[in-house]
Amino acid sequence: MVEVGGGSARLPAAHRPAFYAAAGGSWRAWWTVLHPPYTAWHLAYVVIGASLAPEVDAGRLIATLLAFFLAVGVAAHALDELHGRPLQTTLPAPALAVAVVLGLVGAVGLGIAGVLQVGWVLVPFIVVGPLLVVAYDAELFGGVIHTDLGFAASWGGFPVLTGYVAQAGTLRLAPVLAAAGAIALSAAQRSLSTPARTVRRSVYRMGGTMTMRDGRVRSFDEQLVLQPIERALRASAWAVTLLAAALAVARLT
């Protein structure tokens, strides 16, 4: 296993466990564990859901974003790294465990504070959110949530619905349709990221050639597989994040 972070070697970008994985240094390993483009992507769904509400309260939106950052960006990703080291960091297990606990406690605390503003309708979301984090990453319930659909519903549809309810205190058809769209986008993300992870983290060597119809011969290697997939993932992360930013600006200014 080649290590990234915590005093590890600086790897060429193509050999890192993710296209956003930073090379060397423990603080860079924490950056990698946050999965920055994916965290921004899923936080964008919160903004999209909130922006559909009749009125958008900036304070509630910031609190909801912070809760999801703590639950997904910090706790879920730290638990994932603790459970099998997919990013191959050397971060201490106790430090990752503390990040999981603090992330979930912080998210739940913000949710409880939100109940005072929004009402009891927010309680099911406070319960389901941490349950999804633990059940998905720890593969509880026979791994029924740790599936493509479970991923899409947990990190796509759920943030949209939560973002809307935190603003409106109820549900309507519009956020449900938006949640369905987020589930579809997250399913596409999963379809792209799964083969990319396989190539980066599991394939020891890939090689060969492709003979084109005009007789040209092209090499078949990791870069040929990864480049179009990861370009699509980068572009999609930017697209959804910028769309959410535009909606937030439109509703709050």
Structural overview:
- With 253 residues, the protein is an all-alpha fold.
- The chain has one domain.
- Helices cover 68% and strands 2% of the residues.
- It is built from 8 helices and 2 strands; from the N terminus they run αααααααββα.
- The protein has helices at residues 26-33, 36-51, 58-82, 93-118, 123-137, 148-168, 173-201, 222-252; strands at 209-211, 217-219.
- Strands 1-2 form a two-stranded antiparallel sheet.
- A hairpin with a 5-residue loop joins strand 1 (209-211) and strand 2 (217-219).
- Helix 2 (36-51) runs antiparallel to helix 3 and helix 2 runs parallel beside helix 8 (222-252).
- The longest helix has 31 residues, at 222-252.
- The radius of gyration is 20 Å and the shape is globular.
- The termini are far apart.
List the uncertain runs: 1-11
**Shape verdict:** globular
- Strand order within the widest sheet? 1-2
Strand content: under 5%
Distance between the termini: 50 Å
Mean pLDDT level? 91
What's the β-strand tally? Answer: 2
Structural class, please? mainly alpha
Q: What Rg is obtained from the alpha carbons, in whole angstroms?
A: 20 Å
Largest beta-sheet characterization: 2 strands, antiparallel
* Tally of individual domains: 1
Give the % helix: 55-70%
Secondary-structure element series:
HHHHHHHEEH
Number of DSSP helical runs: 8
